[in-house]
Amino acid sequence: MSFLELNDLRVHFPTDDGLVKSVDGLTFKLERGKTLGIVGESGSGKSVTSLAILGLHKGGRAMISGEIWLDGEELVSASAEHVRTLRGKKMAMIFQDPLSAMHPYYTVGAQIVEAYRIHHHVSKAVARKHAIDMLGRVGIPQPERRIDSYPHEFSGGMRQRAMIAMALSCDPELLIADEPTTALDVTVQAQILDLMRDLQQEFNSALIIITHDLGVVAELSDDILVMYGGKCIEYGTAEDIFERPEHPYTWGLLGSMPRLDRARTERLMPIKGTPPSLINVPSGCAFHPRCAFEGRTGGKANTQVPELLETEGGHLVRCHLPREERRAIWENEIKPNLESV
Amino acid sequence: MSESPEPLLSVQGLEKHFPITKGLIKRQVGAVKAVDGLSFDVVKGETLGLVGESGCGKTTTGRLITRLLEPTGGKVVFEGRDITHMSQGALRPLRRDMQMIFQDPYSSLNPRHTVGAIVGAPFRIQGVKTEHGTKKAVQDILELVGLNPEHYNRYPHEFSGGQRQRIGIARTLALKPKLIIADEPVSALDVSIQAQVVNLLEDLQNELDLTYVVIAHDLSVVRHISDRVAVMYLGKIVEIADRQALYEAPMHPYTTALLSAVPVPDVKRRTERERIRLQGDVPSPLNPPSACRFHTRCWKAQEICKTVEPPLAELATGHQVACHFPENAPKDAVPGDAGTAVPA
Ligand SMILES: Nc1ncnc2c1ncn2[C@@H]1O[C@H](COP(=O)(O)OP(=O)(O)O)[C@@H](O)[C@H]1O
Ligand SMILES: Nc1ncnc2c1ncn2[C@@H]1O[C@H](COP(=O)(O)OP(=O)(O)O)[C@@H](O)[C@H]1O
Ligand code: SF4
Ligand code: SF4
Ligand SMILES: [Mg+2]
Ligand SMILES: [Mg+2]
Q1: What confidence tier does B341 reach under pLDDT thresholds 50, 70, 90?
Q2: What is residue B275's predicted lDDT score, i.e. its pLDDT?
Q3: β B236-242/B313-316 pair status
Q4: What is the pLDDT of residue A119?
Q5: How do B179-183 and B211-215 pair as beta strands?
Q6: What pLDDT is recorded for position A6?
Q7: pLDDT at residue B283 in the model
Q8: Which residue spans within B252-318 are E strands per DSSP?
């Protein structure tokens, strides 16, 4: 069994407007030392997935089914109490907005010290020394002085580093970073991505990086999971997803994105329409109202939900188009347009 | 581009220093030099991209040009007329010609007004008569930006983010402006929707002969949509050039660093990419570093960079840079010797 395994995870929220199927049958595996990138547009269920793994929906109105196995322990059926003890020690999270994750009235140091002492029975002095160490490790200058600053006294980039220090202070084996650089400027984003890459190698933890930015996932990920409407629609190695993607939605994302590493294309190729509501998910293939190839699936697109099937070597695709046709479309109709001058 | 006709917009030494006051009597104790001496021209039909990290003064620049803010120095010249200190009354007819698109499609539309009222407001405010009535004119514009004209009576909350941005664009188009300043027009949108709006802006430019100043922090989007690009750092332009020159042979170290920081989805080359990593964050515009403001983060900085401010000098045709030790500069170019170093 892998270090982390999700099996048909479903997270549904009953609301006044109807049942929101935020995550609807998600399955994947992740080993220690590996990085999984989860990409998708807003509302595709990325954050709800990460909160489910951390057990943060427990006690709320979410209806959860399926399995989450972390190092041999099943977490969906585990008590909230038990999952709380795993949080911080075994798994930790880095959020987009460090201010919302940190307490404004306590110094950064006090928060790391407290987090550390929950799981380690050491004196305050020892924990403080550890906190200074961690702040130094994440590149905060003069950590012995900055440890007594309040979160608002840090710049955005420094705050994000402090949160990473806090998340890593207990040496978690699973780290989930949800849009960790979305609020940062590009030069600071680059620093943080470098930092995460280095720390992950050093700690050999499993890392899940969640983002809407394909460039960011490409920088860090071994494997990539593309989400649409609460489901995985394509999964594969970073090479699979960027070099030989087979799902029309993935093609659409790539065509929408201007790229600095290629000659400038005359025109972007957007996906038509807008992402679906998760209350009234379109019938059949949830992507069919926006799909340029919907007409080629012989009327199945809006009646039958396509299964997530292996196309080759662990590369999974959820689409009714036959494999050979998908490959031909990518080679002849999509790829040339992405590379034009 | 044709040989410089009179520019549509000319910005000369533009400044905005926000006073910082203290105490009851509001004694001024300092100033945020948000925009500190910008000069550039925009010719008719082109798109000028304005990039830089947050806080470098992009939004303030847009608001100064459209006179939503009063400059504390310098000039804004539109179609040859100095509008820097024109009264709001005198400005009114000009407001038709110069419009602004804002980043946030949620807060920039009044939630209690219908789409028809929002897009039609400029007609009423300006007292413009239309041939077949305002409603027909508004519906034509809705169609132009890819919205359903039948949605005339709907409210903003009934639309998605991308559609709201289209409403924002429709509103600016109502009076057939000449110049549109778009402040981060796509940064709040999902990537598939971003592309729709970028294409829309390009189509409208071709169809309506528009001139754009597009403000954005996303360097890939800016390359895609701009003809020329200006890079800002702490209230100043550090480099301005044609798109291709700027992206393929940047001269300012800050531009090089910005470009190198953009994550690209090329997994084959991710390990071999040469990276330049800047240290630290952008300093505060309250106390900007002396002389070259980039010297605290620049890997090429020398003593002179801390004492002598490098002027924005034209080191190749149409390529201006403010740096003592530029990259990719022609051999005979003399940095810092403003104006005289233009090769024939
Ligand atoms: N507590 C909740 N109650 C009801 N709906 C929710 C709740 N949390 C998230 N959702 C909905 O679930 C969907 C997925 O949300 P999320 O996982 O946050 O998306 P993202 O991919 O942008 O991170 C959205 O439609 C969101 O509105
Ligand atoms: N009304 C204001 N009063 C004081 N400072 C301001 C005001 N508006 C903007 N600033 C400051 O001016 C600088 C430039 O801001 P802005 O133009 O919004 O930058 P950008 O759009 O590039 O992110 C920032 O440091 C900002 O805090
Ligand atoms: S199943 Fe049909 S509609 Fe869905 S992605 Fe494949 S081709 Fe498009
Ligand atoms: S003037 Fe000096 S510090 Fe400024 S960018 Fe050029 S080399 Fe760097
Ligand atoms: Mg999210
Ligand atoms: Mg701004």
Answers
A1: very low
A2: 80
A3: unpaired
A4: 84
A5: parallel
A6: 98
A7: 87
A8: 313-316
Q: Counting ligands in written order, which one lies closest to the CA of residue B53? A: 2
What confidence category does residue B336 fall into, taking pLDDT thresholds of 50, 70 and 90? low
B69: helix, strand or coil: coil
Place of tokens 């597009």: B214
Contact A215 B258 (CB under 8 A): no
Q: Which of A188, A199, A197, A202 is nearest to A165 (CA)?
A: A199
**Ligand 1 in reach of A226 Cβ (< 6 A):** no
Nearest atom within ligand 4 for CA of residue B305: 2
CA distance, residue A254 to nearest chain B CA (Å):
9
pLDDT at residue number B4: 59
Reported confidence tier of residue A254, pLDDT bands at 50, 70, 90: very high
Helix (H, G, I), strand (E, B) or coil at B45: coil
Q: Count the neighbouring beta carbons within 10 Å of the beta carbon of residue A292.
A: 16
B 180-199 residues with CB < 8 A to A = 190-196, 198-199
User: What are the helix (H) ranges across chain B?
Assistant: 58-65, 88-97, 115-126, 133-144, 161-173, 191-208, 219-225, 243-248, 253-261, 303-307
CB-based contact B51:B184 (threshold 8 Å): no
Question: What's the mean pLDDT in B109-118?
Answer: 92
| Ligand 3, CB cutoff 6 Å, lining residues | A 248, 285, 287-288, 291, 293-294, 297, 301, 306, 319-321
Domain B9-97+177-337: CATH superfamily, name plus number = P-loop containing nucleotide triphosphate hydrolases (3.40.50.300)
- Say how far apart CA B315 and CA B338 lie, in whole Å: 9
Please tell me the number of Cα atoms within 13 Å of A272 on its side-chain side: 9
Cβ-contact A46, A210 below 8 angstroms: yes
Residue B255, both tokens: 């531009």
Using an 8 Å CB-CB cutoff, list chain A residues near B219: 186, 260
Burial B214-249 (b: 16+ CB within 10 A, else e): bbbbbbbbbbbbbbbbbbbbbbbbbbbbbbebbbee
Q: pLDDT tens digit string along B153-191?
A: 999 988 888 888 899 999 888 888 999 999 999 988 888
Chain A interface mutation, best of B267, B277, B278, B279, highest count of A Cβ atoms under 10 Å: B267
Q: Where are the domains of chain A?
A: 103-171, 244-338
Identify the band that residue A198 occupies on the pLDDT scale cut at 50, 70 and 90: confident
Ligand closest in space to the Cα of B104: 6
Nearest residue on chain A to B264, alpha-carbon basis? A215
Tally: H helices and E strands in chain A:
13, 12
Q: What is the pLDDT of residue B23?
A: 82
- Could you read off the pLDDT of B277-321 as tens digits, one per residue? 888 788 888 889 999 999 999 999 999 999 999 999 999 999 999
Higher pLDDT pick, B307 / A141: B307
Strands A174-178 and A91-94: parallel
Note the pLDDT tens digit of each residue in B82-95: 999 999 899 988 88
Distance (Å, whole) CA B180 – CA B336: 33
